[in-house]
Amino acid sequence: MSRGILFYAHNNRHIDYGKIALANSCLIKKHMKNNSVTIVTDEGTVNWLYKAYSKEFVDSKIDNIMVERRRNTPNKKRYHDTRYSKQVETFYNIDRHNSYHYSPYDETLLLDVDYMICNNQFDMCWDVNQDIQINKHSKDILSTRQYDEFTRLGEQSIDFYWATAVFFRKTEETEILFNLVNHVQQNYEYYKLLYHFNAPSFRNDFAFSIAIHLLNGMANNNFVSSLPVPFLQHSHGFDDCIDVEGTKFKFLLEKPNNPGDYLVCQTQDTNIHVMNKFALNRLSDKIIKENS
Amino acid sequence: MTDQRLEKALEFANYRSTLANQKQKLKDRCEAQLNYAYNGGVFHINETLIAFIDSFCRQDKKSMVMLDSNKTPIDIEDLQDFYNQITTRWFESVNEYHRQHSELANKRKVHKLVD
Q1: pLDDT by residue (tens digit) across A54-79?
Q2: What is the full DSSP assignment across chain A?
Q3: Which sequence spans correspond to the domains of chain B?
Q4: Is residue B2 over pLDDT 80?
Q5: What is the number of alpha carbons within 13 Å of residue B85 lying toward its C-beta?
Q6: Minimal C-alpha gap between A104 and chain B (Å)
Q7: Distance (Å) from the C-alpha of residue A105 to the closest C-alpha of chain B?
């Protein structure tokens, strides 16, 4: 059985997803046992990456680079770099429904490039007899902060699942799931009305949540099981990631009752979903240097 | 209250918030480490699980079926091996949690909490 990790990395004008993927691959090579990495990318992204790092170095950290055509899309996303700066940019990483076909592995861990891997807990995925594993729960790294948008799709809608980390084995059921995710994506406006949520742009999390709900027979059921970690952890776009030292990430977290004021926080050996991509871009070179 | 005393109080409040959050990070890390995959199942290691398995080991039971965290029945073929592995993981995680928690308790400045 082949095992590995799959990333999607399509740069836009502001975010260098390719470099973030390389930084995360360095972390994965360092910490995980099942550390074969494949990225699905486009020609522009990979050429840009080769300008910053030699082909030899990139190939030593990323086992397969699949170059696909970057599809033009009107899908816009707001990228925050703390509360003081934001950019509206095209979000090209919307081809996750192809993961079943793109993945060269029999057993794949599909990860967001901004979910920084700092320990080996995800190695347990491959030891668990569940063909699809995805988490409902993610904890904010500021423990006193909680946003409802990550609990349900809308106030009266279904449970939210995090497409940030999805484990799957190539089975008939898994193929149905990914086909359904594709169907939801193609008919997103309809599903927005059906599931009572208002999202200005397409979100992979929402498409997976809807597909899982449908395959559960429109109920909360156990078609999928949780990853072998009790929860994911995330920081927001309003937060800043200011430093990294090995697996220690230092953040400035915005206080929930005092916007624009920050609390310092450090994580160690903890997988963390960093939503401020600008901060990750600033730190990518350091992450690569410290972990290669 | 003078400005200086108020400033000191706010500084202390900031320290307490940072300390509380850092403690929570340690707790979360320990909790994550206590998840353990065995023979196709996932188990959350806690005192109850350890005592439960220990009670059957003491009765010389060699194997048994357990419900994992997803309530899936998992055949534990070597009960003693399972017991050894979960206790080792439990001690490693909890001892590390204790060490780091004690270190935090002795730090009285915000910048030292995240050093």
Answers
A1: 999 999 999 999 999 887 888 888 99
A2: --EEEEEEE---SS--HHHHHHHHHHHHHHH-SS--EEEEE-HHHHHHHHHHS-HHHHHHH-SEEEE-PPPP---EEEEESSTT-EEEEE-----GGGHHHH--SSEEEEE-TTEE--SSGGGGGGGBS-SEEEES-EEESSTT---GGGTBSSTTSPBP-EEEEEEEE--HHHHHHHHHHHHHHHTHHHHHHHTT---SS--HHHHHHHHHHHHTTSSS--SSB--SSS-EEEE-TTSEEEEEETTEEEEEEEETTEEEEEEEEEEES--EEE--HHHHHHHHHHHHHHH-
A3: 11-113
A4: no
A5: 14
A6: 23
A7: 19
CB contact under 8 A, A265 and B22: yes
Q: What is the pLDDT of residue A23?
A: 97
Percent of chain B with pLDDT over 90: 81
Segment B35-60 mean pLDDT: 96
| pLDDT tens readout for residues B93-105 | 999 999 999 999 8
* Range 42-101 of B in CB contact (< 8 A) with A: 42, 44, 69-70, 72
CB atoms within 10 A of CB B6: 10
CATH code of the domain in which A45 resides: 3.90.550
- Cβ contacts below 8 Å, chain A against chain B, sum to 75
pLDDT at residue number A13:
92
In sequence order, the β-bridge partners of residue A108 are A4, A168
A94-103 pLDDT, tens digit each: 889 999 999 9
Give the structural domain span for A111.
3-291
Whole-complex ipTM: 0.89
Across the interface, whether the CB atoms of A226 and B37 are under 8 A apart is answered no
**Predicted local confidence at residue B1, as pLDDT:** 62
Number of domains in chain A: 1
Q: Which amino acid is at A137?
A: H
Q: Which pLDDT band holds residue B3 (cuts at 50, 70, 90)?
A: confident
pLDDT < 70 regions, chain A = none
Question: Which tokens hold the place of A135?
Answer: 């988490």
Binary contact (A267, B31; C-beta < 8 A)? no
Calpha distance A131→B72 (Å, rounded): 13
